[in-house]
Write a structure and sequence with these properties.
Blueprint lengths: L6 E3 L4 E3 L1 E3 L2 E8 L22 E3 L29 E6 L7 E7 L17 H5 L3 E5 L4 H5 L9 H16 L5 E11 L1 H11 L9 E5 L8 H15 L5 H6 L2 H12 L31 H6 L7 E7 L4 H6 L8 H11 L5 H8 L5 H27 L4 E6 L17 H6 L7 H4 L6 H20 L13 E5 L4 E4 L3 H6 L13
Parallel strand pairs: 2-5, 7-8, 7-9, 9-10, 10-11, 11-12, 12-13
Antiparallel strand pairs: 1-2, 3-4, 4-6, 6-8, 13-14
């Protein structure tokens, strides 16, 4: 039985949450000190203890960021730096044995917040789990390669959040020995990195990575992008100058660089994306790219569920108003940049003979950025002896009169059941058809089964038997559906992306 105004003692002090629909919810709990002043661009430090009982009924402020495309306003910036907070939804703070899921939001490593109503944890908690979400540093604050500062500060924030979970989640009813991290897009990229990080070892038992992006940078590429952002901001690319610069000035400079990435040919294929920041394989925080790390068995003891959506890149084409306008030259550019050896662009044209320019453009972008990095992560983990499950989402977004297909990010409102909230507001509408919501309910129930016991309900993926859960209006289990692309990419080794010479 959940008491009124539930209170919990954490390692830093006592907090008071609220009761909402029978659940105990705690928001805005610091898991690290504000990374400002002398702590700016440094590894996270444990939060300062407080006296008395801290109110934990409001979300913490997200890291500095620009207005997300399509959003009405940019999130307000807390100049005090209280950006590193967690939120907890629990059905029973006294249970101590409930499975724990820790959600890491996406947003191209530039955007996002754990306060997004589209990732409310109530449906997970109502089903008997403890759901935790967190903020982490983004953009320059979290991922710029800065001389004298640790790389991947955003990843170090996530490690600190997971350490907070290990130390405190029992007080919220969760089992610290049964933690599953899950996330989508940049959140899934962060999870792939966590799987490869020595510093994250032992902090989670299972991982769910939804649409893993293939962008992991080398230090030289990341440093060159940092120099471009600093130049746009009018400051030297040094620790002293950047740490003295206003965070929003650096956000504005980052977005200006994002808008003209094609002007930097030395950034190679990355110049064709809107992603100037990604985890960096710096050799210390992140020793090497996740695909190589998993292949060597770095995360063999972690159970992995991963997958992608069929029409990943359709979202970005649609949001930019380019559906139906892709030219032969557009397709040729991305094919030349992304199509893998040995056959390159000719391989795609031969393998997809009926695809027009728009279809080829979408296919190769989807494969390079999300579909094949996800598949190869599963293959690497399975090849090392890790327990692996693979899925593909094929159910199409009910909003937009079919324009979105089974696009990127559609799985977020489906898994959270957040119809009409966050990105679901324009992908699913206020109340999607019953057969579509049933697929989302099934995904969530299978995520919960995996988190509870390591078995989502379908056979494991193997390098010979490529068993895949297919989430369509008539869900099924069968061979991996994208065999044509799989064959095109079978000799490719995903690795860190560096400067083009």
């Amino acid at each position: 039985m959940v008491p009124a105004d539930p209170e919990v003692s954490t390692s830093a002090g006592r907090i008071r949450g609220s009761i909402e629909n029978g659940l105990a919810i705690f928001r805005g709990i610091p898991f690290a000190r504000p990374p400002v002043g002398a702590l700016r661009f440094r590894a996270p430090r444990a939060p300062e203890p407080w006296d008395g009982t801290r109110d934990a009924r409001a979300f913490g402020s997200p890291a500095p960021q620009a207005q997300f495309p399509g959003a009405e306003l940019a999130p307000p910036v807390d100049e005090g730096g209280e950006w590193l907070t967690v939120n907890v939804w629990t059905p029973d703070p006294g249970a101590r044995t409930l499975p724990v899921l820790v959600y890491i939001h996406g947003g191209a490593y530039l955007f996002g917040s754990s306060a997004d109503p589209g990732t409310d944890g109530s449906k997970f908690a109502s089903a008997g789990a403890v759901l935790v979400s967190c903020n982490y540093r983004l953009g320059v604050e979290g991922f710029a390669q800065i001389p004298g500062a640790p790389a991947n500060r955003g990843l170090l924030d996530l490690v600190a959040a997971l350490r907070w979970v290990a130390e405190n989640i029992a007080a919220f009813g969760g089992d610290p020995a049964n933690v599953t991290v899950f996330g989508e897009s940049a959140g899934a990229g962060a999870i792939a990195a966590l799987l490869a990080m020595d510093g994250a070892r032992g902090l989670f038992r299972r991982a769910i990575a939804q649409s893993v992006p293939g962008t992991i940078f080398t230090p030289d590429l990341a440093a060159d992008i940092t120099r471009a952002v600093a130049d746009r901001a009018g400051v030297p690319a040094t620790y002293e100058a950047l740490s003295a610069a206003d965070p929003m000035r650096l956000v504005e400079a980052s977005m200006a660089v994002t808008g003209r990435m094609k002007q930097f040919p030395q950034w190679g294929a990355v110049r064709l994306t809107d992603t100037p920041f990604s985890p960096v394989a710096d050799g210390e925080v992140l020793p090497r790219a996740p695909w190589r790390a998993l292949l060597s068995g770095a995360a063999r003891d972690v159970e992995l569920l991963t997958g992608h959506n069929r029409d990943e890149y359709r979202l970005f084409i649609a949001m930019s108003g380019r559906l139906g306008t892709i030219t032969d030259d557009d397709a040729a550019t991305v094919l030349e940049s992304f199509a893998p050896a040995p056959d390159g662009p000719a391989g795609y044209r031969k393998s997809y003979p009926d695809a027009d320019a728009g279809r080829l453009y979408e296919l190769v972008f989807s494969d390079w950025l999300f579909r094949m990095p996800t598949l190869h992560l599963a293959q690497a983990h399975a090849a090392s002896g890790g327990k692996t499950f693979l899925y593909e989402l094929r159910a199409e977004a009910p909003a937009g009169e079919g324009m979105f297909g089974a696009c990127h990010a559609l799985d977020v409102p489906m898994v959270f059941g957040a119809w009409g909230q966050g990105i679901g507001a324009f992908l699913t509408g206020e109340q999607p058809p019953a057969d579509f919501t049933a697929v989302g309910d099934l995904m969530r129930s299978e995520w919960l089964s995996f988190a509870a016991a390591g078995d989502p309900g379908w056979p494991v993926y193997g390098t010979e038997r490529r068993t895949t859960r297919v989430y369509d209006l008539q869900p099924d289990v069968g061979p991996y559906p994208e065999e044509t692309s799989m064959r095109l990419w079978e000799r490719h080794q995903f690795d860190s992306l560096g400067l083009s010479r």
